Amino acid sequence: MALSSPPESSSSLHHSYSRKQKSLGLLCTNFLALYNREGIETVGLDDAATKLGVERRRIYDIVNVLESVGVLTRRAKNQYTWKGFDAIPAALKELQEEGAKDTFHRFYTNENVKVSDDEDDDEESSQPSSQTDSSKAGSLPQTSDSSKIGWSCVTDNRREKSLGLLTQNFIKLFVCSEARIISLDEAAKLLLGDAHNTSIMRTKVRRLYDIANVLSSMNLIEKTHTLDSRKPAFKWLGYNGEPTFTFTLSNDLMQAESRKRVFGTDITNVNVKRSKTHENAASERTLKMKKHAVEESSCNKSFDTTHESRHGSRGYQFGPFAPATGTYPTATLDDNSRRAFDVENLVSDYRPSYQNQVLKDLFAHYMDAWKEWYSEVTKKDPLPNTSPHH
DNA sequence: TTTTCCCGCCACAAG
DNA sequence: CTTGTGGCGGGAAAA
């Protein structure tokens, strides 16, 4: 047993295609690592797709939900403005107010999810002003709607059918109710208010999975289980700060990232395609870092006492998604720490993840910080390095 | 088996 | 027309 990792069957045969390395959540994490640093002000979709080695389509998914939370704003075709995590609080507040306004009176109880059967979400209701679009119009008395706070969700027309709105509505569920934990099934049902059409709901849930994954990588929510610890569900974390990688790395990484980027040659990210691909050789035994079992519950709670959202200053401060409110009935469970998860993906090179020089460099910095953090948390350092911290 | 959810077809809006 | 955006759901990996 060389590598920790999955409980896969016996001999590790060709590690074929793995969905985990293609997940939206991971992609989002990388996206954030790439753009969440001072100095960034615009992000181009092509640029992102190229650097991250994915198709455009996926970038749209991420960008749409990030925009729903204010981290990004569409500026023009193919171009977005980076607002950063600092824009989240305001966006959240806005959602809350907005949600409280319209028909979003959901009464939840700590132990019982009660939902009235009447209609529900779709926050566009509000003023029943029949806005029969087009056809001249000339002078409309109450035109109003001149976006007050940047992106407003009203004013939207046909096309705006999902993802962005779904994300906002999903967040409203948390932010406008007492519910701290909601399963996607419940969310889908609530955000649908109707549909028992399995088909409709199935699709909705698929979208929610996508959204939940990127929201998770931002640490706005966390995967857990319902109170009766049965069905998987998500817990609202709010804006506690850290987006996965919070430390700022030195300049050399910046440099690395801005290394030449030519159009014709995209990164080597091949499409392993899904299917039982035989997998190309590439089995180079290189790094084989043994991942210490972090399960030592020791590392949990620690940086919780003072959660200032001021990230950016160097230093580690990983936010291991930690069970801040440590309410895990039975410890253990799938504690796939985002962090450990990422480490594993980045370290193993027998499988190409979203590669790029950027990530390699990022990983190096990340490892250093991790070592430091590790030795501090568990008074024993994994290596001769001793952190000077008291 | 069920749950999670990636992939990419293809509709439709912009150039 | 071509290109940019993104619904939508099949079906395969993961649990």
UniProtKB/TrEMBL annotation:
<comment type="similarity">
    <text>Belongs to the E2F/DP family.</text>
</comment>
<feature type="region of interest" description="Disordered">
    <location>
        <begin position="298"/>
        <end position="321"/>
    </location>
</feature>
<dbReference type="GO" id="GO:0000981">
    <property type="term" value="F:DNA-binding transcription factor activity, RNA polymerase II-specific"/>
</dbReference>
<keyword id="KW-0678">Repressor</keyword>
<keyword id="KW-0238">DNA-binding</keyword>
<feature type="region of interest" description="Disordered">
    <location>
        <begin position="115"/>
        <end position="147"/>
    </location>
</feature>
<keyword id="KW-0805">Transcription regulation</keyword>
<dbReference type="GO" id="GO:0032876">
    <property type="term" value="P:negative regulation of DNA endoreduplication"/>
</dbReference>
<dbReference type="InterPro" id="IPR036388">
    <property type="entry name" value="WH-like_DNA-bd_sf"/>
</dbReference>
<feature type="domain" description="E2F/DP family winged-helix DNA-binding">
    <location>
        <begin position="158"/>
        <end position="238"/>
    </location>
</feature>
<protein>
    <recommendedName>
        <fullName>E2F/DP family winged-helix DNA-binding domain-containing protein</fullName>
    </recommendedName>
</protein>
<dbReference type="InterPro" id="IPR003316">
    <property type="entry name" value="E2F_WHTH_DNA-bd_dom"/>
</dbReference>
<dbReference type="GO" id="GO:0090575">
    <property type="term" value="C:RNA polymerase II transcription regulator complex"/>
</dbReference>
<keyword id="KW-0539">Nucleus</keyword>
<keyword id="KW-0131">Cell cycle</keyword>
<feature type="domain" description="E2F/DP family winged-helix DNA-binding">
    <location>
        <begin position="19"/>
        <end position="84"/>
    </location>
</feature>
<keyword id="KW-0804">Transcription</keyword>
<dbReference type="Pfam" id="PF02319">
    <property type="entry name" value="WHD_E2F_TDP"/>
</dbReference>
<dbReference type="GO" id="GO:0042023">
    <property type="term" value="P:DNA endoreduplication"/>
</dbReference>
<feature type="compositionally biased region" description="Polar residues">
    <location>
        <begin position="136"/>
        <end position="147"/>
    </location>
</feature>
<feature type="compositionally biased region" description="Low complexity">
    <location>
        <begin position="126"/>
        <end position="135"/>
    </location>
</feature>
<dbReference type="InterPro" id="IPR015633">
    <property type="entry name" value="E2F"/>
</dbReference>
<dbReference type="GO" id="GO:0000978">
    <property type="term" value="F:RNA polymerase II cis-regulatory region sequence-specific DNA binding"/>
</dbReference>
<dbReference type="InterPro" id="IPR036390">
    <property type="entry name" value="WH_DNA-bd_sf"/>
</dbReference>
